[in-house]
Structures are given as structure tokens and as C-alpha cells.
Write a structure and sequence with these properties.
The chain is an alpha+beta fold and 554 residues long. The chain contains 10 helices and 36 strands.
Length: 554
């Protein structure tokens, strides 16, 4: 007898999951479609009316893009004169408050789906990474800093139009001893956002456009995924970040991470609010929590103890039974969440649901941010984040800005005690996490005829000094250093020394080395795929922190 069809295997799994060990007759095996009525009853109604309004504001178009701007090419060729008057940061502008509790929703998902720990996930890492010399030519790097470690992605990730790497963190952020459980993987985590959604669904006229056979599996806005890299095996694995909700049939489900779900009245257009994604320009792993920057809103928080496994037997061709009596399917890359009594995840084995939200409480400045403008007062943008462990643990948050004629700031940064953030994550809705410091960036320095201190993609603070990554389109970026201005003024003063970094430089992660005895490493990554410029590459890389300090002369 040949192998039963996939539909037959699904039916068998569903029977076993319900605890019924009765024998299946040949007739029963031949007609697994008996579940169709229940499946129809479980379908969310057209338009995703079951998806609640999450209350998240939309991000500016082309967030953190050096070449963005509706003002056109003229504004980029002839930018306004560099700012000469420094601005002072106001810590009160950076205040965060906990959003509505997601605990019940996450607990319902936990009960419905199998769960996996990060140590086990690292052992299941399935994608080989290149290491050091395996990464080939080093033309993406500038001449001022010697690259110590290099990690390069599998070819489809290195060239993907869909997934753009942005943020980086790792086990050194997670805990002081740099030892996650019993694993020697010393994980590094990189977040990427979905930037390519051809032929997006029209929710009103035909919500299933993206699941039609002719549609690309890139059609849906998949939001954010995190890639966990195992340093011991040099393998990595993707995890899809998701938002839990109760669908229109009162069943727990999840969707990909979006700034807003939205609906379109007709075809999806640039002005339509359907599935507006977030950028995830920064990420910090601290304890069990993963903090992900949401530019317009604050931070989304995830719990590494809540990683759901939709393919426990590691056989993608066979749908797996789930604890709630349904099954999960990791072959269909066009569906997500619970649909027709089957769990989907855009083809990913692992999903991690959001467990908390930290939202800015300060009102927006009121002026436009459509072209990456920033202002000296009002709600900041959460463009990038990192962790400072050199004294009392603090999260650092900063803004990506482009100086336009009508904006008055090239960016601000603020710091939060991690004790305050943890208390807000674990506290009731409305619990506040206040910043204890805020600074305006240095001013008065030109670079290629524009402000040097703008277009920041990453920041970290180490032993009292601040380090920034400035992007430069498809040319070599810059690393900058600054110190607080003497006298208590909430401003930073820039080191006149400027170092060439990589092309497409992004977020920072400081591996302090105190747990494993290695020299401190300042990690970052490149975002640009090779087709964008001759030397463009996507790599994770590190510099010896001692050399960075020495090259800046302090």
C-alpha cells in the first residue's frame, strides 16, 4: 500500500490528537473531507473583522532610509546648512508606559501550541552561516578599523529582497555570565523586517489574493523575524515574531507583527493602511525578554520562554497535532495563524508572540516626520536601541533623523534603567518607565556638505563614552564618538576624529567578554544586498573594542 495522501495524514493526526485510537477503515481514509463543515465554521470572516485595533501608530514611509524624501532629489543634493545651535535632551519626552496586558492571550496560545526553549532551538538551527574567511571579499569595510569576526548569511538570506537585516543583540546583553542555560552556543540574534510585498491583498474585494496559486509567497506583509545564530556550530534559525489576538470565531490566533492591521476600501495602494509593517531598527535581549524597537510607538516585548514550535517532529511534509486538538502546517508559506482548524506560520517552524508593549506617553511634536525629520521636543522615535552593562544596566534609545529645512534636530538619545523597563513589562497597564538621561546630538560639523551628526543607525555607550553608526547610502559609513558636555548640560560633544566603518552600517551590540574571557567585541551588521552596489554585502561583524577606543584617541 502506498503512502497516504497529505490530507489523509492530516485526518489521522486530528483523530489521534483527540485521543481516539479507533482503527480507520479504507473508506474513512479515502474521505478525509468530512472536516469541511467545521473548517468553514472556523474561518475568520472576510476583512479580518476579528483583528482588534492594536492602537499602534504608523511609521513614516522609508523609515531609516538615507535616500528617502518626498521633497525630491533637490533636497538631497542641496541640504540645508548644518545646524549650529545645539539642542538639549529632555528625559521626560522619553517616558514609556505599559500597554494593555497580553498575558491571557499569550497563555491561550501557550496552551494551544507546542513550546520550545532557546537552547533546544539552537540545537535545531538549520541554516549554515559563513564564518571569517568563508565570507569572501571584504570590500564593504572601510580602512580605519580591522574587522575581527565575520558572519555571512546563507545565499538566499544574503540576497533577499524581502528580508532586510537591521538590529542585533546577543547573550552578552542577556546575562552577565554570557552562558545561556547549558548551551555553549553564545547566541547572537539579528532582526530583519519585511520590505517586499508584491501584489498585496485587497481585504475588501478579495482578501485571499495572497493565497492564490499565482501569488508569490512574499505577497503578505510578514512583519519581523529574528535569526538566532549558534556561534559553536555556526548555524542559525529564523523565528517569526507574531501578535496574539482572538479571531472573529472567538478562537485564539496570531498574525504577523504590523504597526497597524488596517483595511482597504478598494485595491491596496500606498495610501491604504493594510498591514503596515514596522522597522525593528534596534533590539535588546535582557534576561528572558527581547525588546524590539517600534519607531513610532516605543518598544514591543517578547519572552524567550514562549517560543512556539509548529513542527516538533522536524518533518515539514507531515502536519503535526497540536495540544488543542488541531494540526499545524509549515509547508504553506501564504497563511498565518489559525485558519480552518489548522495553524499556519508563513512556513516558519517557530513563532514568538508579543507579551507586552511599552509606548511613548509624550505627544508627537505635531510637525511632519514623513521625510525622517526630527524635532527638539515631543515624542522621540525609537529608531535603534542597545544595552550598556558597564555600570548599572541601561537601555539606550535613539533617533534616526535627516535634517530638512523645516526640522530643528538631527537626533536625540535617552537612557532607561533596565529595572524600570522590567517593572513596566511585568506590571499593570499604565506602569511607567522613565528615562533618567537624555541628550541632543552634537552639531556644527559638515560631512559631504550636510550635517555629520544625522542619519544615525545605531548607538551604544561604553565606559561613559557614546559610539554611533552613521549611514552613508551605498558608500562607506562612519563611526563617531561623543561625550556629555561638561557642566550638566543635556548635550553631547563630538570627538573630531571620525572613523570609516562599513557600507550600510546598522545597530550595535557589545559583547563584553567578562563571562567567557574574550576581549570585548563591538558587533554591528550591514543591511544592503549585493545587487545594490558593487561592494554591498550583508554580514555580521565585530571590532575589538580596545582598537575602537584607541583609534578614537581615548
Amino acid at each position: 500500500m502506498g503512502m497516504p495522501s497529505r490530507g489523509t495524514r492530516l485526518a489521522v493526526c486530528a483523530v489521534l490528537a483527540g485521543g481516539l485510537l479507533t482503527a480507520l477503515t479504507p473508506a474513512a481514509l479515502a474521505t478525509p473531507a468530512q472536516a469541511a463543515p467545521a473548517a468553514v465554521a472556523d474561518d475568520p470572516v472576510p476583512g479580518h473583522e476579528g483583528m482588534p485595533d492594536d492602537g499602534f501608530a504608523d511609521e513614516p514611509e522609508s523609515e531609516q532610509d538615507d535616500l528617502s524624501g518626498s521633497e525630491g532629489a533637490a533636497s538631497r543634493v542641496a541640504p540645508p546648512d548644518p545646524l549650529t545651535t545645539p539642542i538639549a535632551g529632555r528625559a521626560s519626552d522619553f517616558r514609556l508606559v505599559a500597554g494593555s496586558s497580553l498575558t491571557g492571550l499569550v497563555n491561550d496560545l501557550d496552551a494551544a501550541l507546542p513550546k520550545q526553549g532557546l537552547t533546544e532551538l539552537m540545537e535545531q538551527a538549520n541554516r549554515p552561516a559563513g564564518w571569517e574567511g568563508d565570507c569572501g571579499g571584504a570590500g564593504m569595510y572601510g580602512p580605519d578599523l580591522a574587522v575581527n569576526h565575520r558572519v555571512c548569511w546563507k545565499s538566499d538570506d544574503a540576497t533577499s529582497k524581502e528580508w532586510i537585516p537591521q538590529a542585533i543583540t546577543g547573550v552578552s546583553d542577556a546575562q552577565e555570565d554570557e552562558d545561556w542555560g547549558t548551551s555553549n552556543a553564545e547566541p547572537i540574534a539579528v532582526a530583519s523586517y519585511d520590505d517586499y510585498n508584491p501584489n498585496r491583498s485587497d481585504y475588501t474585494a478579495g482578501r485571499d489574493n495572497c493565497v492564490q496559486e499565482s501569488a508569490s509567497d512574499a505577497c503578505n506583509e510578514k512583519g519581523i523575524r529574528v535569526s538566532f545564530f549558534n556561534q559553536a556550530t555556526q548555524m542559525y534559525r529564523h523565528v517569526l515574531l507574531v501578535w496574539p489576538y482572538v479571531n472573529s470565531k472567538d478562537h485564539i490566533s496570531f498574525d504577523a507583527l504590523h504597526a497597524r492591521e488596517g483595511k482597504c476600501g478598494s485595491s491596496v495602494t500606498a495610501s491604504c493602511a493594510a498591514q503596515n509593517g514596522i522597522h525593528a531598527g534596534g533590539m535588546v535581549w535582557y534576561g528572558n525578554y527581547l525588546y524590539v524597537a517600534d519607531t513610532a510607538n516605543g518598544m514591543r516585548v517578547f519572552d524567550l520562554r514562549k517560543i512556539m514550535d509548529l513542527n516538533p517532529d522536524n518533518d515539514a511534509e507531515a502536519n503535526d497535532p497540536t495540544p488543542d486538538g488541531l494540526v499545524s502546517d509549515v509547508q504553506d508559506k501564504k497563511r498565518v495563524g489559525r485558519q480552518s482548524n489548522v495553524w499556519y506560520s508563513y512556513g516558519y517552524r517557530y513563532v514568538m508572540p508579543q507579551v507586552a508593549t511599552l509606548k511613548f506617553s509624550t505627544a508627537k511634536n505635531g510637525k511632519t516626520t514623513a521625510d525622517n525629520e526630527c524635532y527638539s521636543t515631543g515624542r522621540p522615535k525609537a529608531s535603534y536601541i542597545s544595552l550598556d552593562r558597564t555600570d548599572t544596566d541601561h537601555l539606550i534609545l535613539g533617533e534616526y533623523c535627516i535634517h530638512r529645512a523645516h526640522s530643528d534636530s538631527t537626533g536625540r538619545v535617552g537612557t532607561y534603567p533596565m529595572t524600570a523597563l522590567t517593572a513596566a513589562v511585568e506590571g499593570a497597564a499604565g506602569t511607567a518607565a522613565n528615562a533618567d538621561l537624555a541628550y541632543g546630538l552634537p552639531v556644527g560639523v559638515s560631512f559631504n556638505g550636510e550635517d555629520l551628526w544625522q542619519k544615525m543607525q545605531g548607538v551604544t555607550r561604553y565606559e561613559g563614552k557614546w559610539y554611533f553608526h552613521r549611514s552613508n547610502a551605498y558608500s562607506t559609513g562612519r563611526m563617531l564618538q561623543a561625550t556629555p558636555r561638561a557642566g550638566g548640560t543635556a548635550e553631547l560633544v563630538g570627538n573630531p576624529k571620525v572613523l570609516q566603518s562599513s557600507i550600510g552600517p546598522e545597530d550595535f551590540y557589545l559583547a563584553h567578554g567578562r563571562g567567557d574571557g574574550f576581549a570585548p567585541q563591538l558587533y554591528s551588521l550591514g543591511e544592503h544586498a549585493p545587487d545594490l552596489c558593487g561592494a554591498c554585502k550583508r554580514e555580521v561583524y565585530s571590532y575589538n573594542m580596545s582598537e575602537v577606543i584607541s583609534d578614537f584617541g581615548s
